[in-house]
């Protein structure tokens, strides 16, 4: 091999290669040792339940972030050490150090979103605002925090889909954390029923159903009539507690199904229904369900179809119909005297003879 064509001696090139390989091997060994030392504690923290679960999840979140930060720092130092083994890179590095202030300003402006996410990740982890396995609701999306890094947060949704948010989203936008202090939750079931529903019997049945359900934690329960709806129904709300969000959802579904079956089988008259009837007026009279007119203020009943007693006691004949079939309104016959009558356009004949014929007016 023509070693004379190489710059410098071949021994120097081999030593340089070995130096870079030693830096890489040392970096890999340090990272493996760090991961080997941190994996057992993280594994133990995953299996802690009960009241200590919240503190365990906080410690696990912070340990994972610190391990990631340490790995990034070690990798950057190793890459820098490998590059500085080249004389030309050392010369460039000296110039960069001389202008470190301007270079840092430029890099900071260019990487502002990335740096913002990094700081937001540290803020979330060490302020205890968000932890692994927390149940959160953001932008109408329910999910469990599956992964929390310095740049993004992964939420596992109820149907096993994953939604990824930047870390800055949780520092700039409001969100609900259902497990901030405890994993226990209150669930609610709302029912719209008729006024005839027996509330006490329904309350007794609710307690019996909860007592036999293993998802109920025996902490809270109540059944209340919370509102009367404009459509004539009552709104009942049943509250119950469970150990976590998954148990709360299943318990709500079980209780809703049980109460629906109980009302349908035992009190079918309490099922939602709408009533249609006469509307009372101020003087106690009103329209009948068939649409006829009620009694007049002087005690006499008004005629519904145009037939009624006349002034001299004779029965009035129905008004003649037009070709279109209408007996009132624009197609009704006019009063012979030119004055409108009180029956909405119909003319009542006077005397015992038939009503005089009058010309019909069409619209």
UniProtKB/TrEMBL annotation:
It comes from the Bacteria. Residues 115-180 form the Mechanosensitive ion channel MscS domain. Gene3D superfamilies: 1.10.287.1260, 2.30.30.60. This is Mechanosensitive ion channel. The chain crosses the membrane at residues 20-37, 64-86, 92-111. It is found in: Membrane. Residues 285-363 are annotated as: Disordered. GO terms for cellular component: membrane. Residues 295-320 have a biased composition (Low complexity). The keyword Glycosyltransferase does not apply. One of its GO terms (biological process) is transmembrane transport. InterPro entries: LSM_dom_sf, MscS_beta-dom_sf, MscS_channel_2nd. Keywords: Membrane, Transmembrane, Transmembrane helix.
């Amino acid at each position: 091999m023509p070693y004379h064509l190489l710059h410098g001696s071949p021994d120097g090139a081999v030593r340089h290669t070995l130096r870079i390989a030693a830096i890489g091997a040392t970096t890999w060994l340090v990272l493996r040792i760090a991961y080997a030392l941190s994996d057992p504690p993280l594994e133990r923290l995953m299996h802690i339940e009960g009241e200590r679960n919240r503190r365990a999840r906080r410690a696990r979140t912070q340990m994972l972030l610190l391990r990631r930060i340490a790995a990034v720092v070690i990798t950057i130092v190793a890459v820098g050490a490998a590059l500085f083994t080249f004389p030309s890179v050392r010369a460039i590095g000296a110039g960069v150090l001389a202008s470190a202030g301007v270079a840092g300003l430029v890099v900071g402006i260019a990487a502002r979103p990335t740096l913002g996410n990094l700081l937001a990740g540290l803020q979330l982890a060490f302020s205890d605002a968000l932890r692994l396995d927390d149940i959160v609701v953001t932008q109408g999306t329910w999910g469990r925090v599956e992964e929390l890094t310095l740049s993004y947060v992964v939420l596992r949704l109820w149907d096993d889909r994953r939604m990824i948010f930047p870390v800055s989203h949780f520092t700039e936008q409001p969100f609900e954390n259902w497990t901030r202090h405890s994993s226990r939750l209150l669930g609610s079931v709302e029912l719209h029923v008729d006024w005839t529903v027996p509330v006490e019997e329904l309350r007794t049945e609710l307690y019996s159903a909860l007592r036999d359900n293993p998802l109920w934690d025996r902490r809270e329960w109540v059944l209340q009539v919370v509102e009367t709806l404009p459509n004539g129904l009552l709104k009942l709300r049943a509250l119950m507690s469970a150990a976590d969000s998954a148990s709360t959802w299943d318990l709500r579904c079980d209780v809703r199904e049980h109460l629906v079956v109980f009302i349908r089988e035992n009190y079918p008259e309490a099922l939602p229904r709408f009533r249609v009837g006469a509307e009372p007026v101020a003087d106690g009279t009103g329209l009948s369900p068939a649409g006829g007119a009620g009694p007049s203020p002087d005690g006499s009943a008004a005629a519904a179809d145009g037939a009624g007693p006349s002034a001299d006691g004779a029965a009035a004949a129905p008004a003649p119909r037009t070709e279109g079939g209408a007996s009132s309104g624009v197609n009704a016959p006019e009063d012979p005297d030119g004055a409108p009558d009180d029956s909405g356009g119909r003319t009542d004949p006077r005397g015992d003879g038939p009503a005089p014929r009058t010309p019909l007016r069409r619209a």
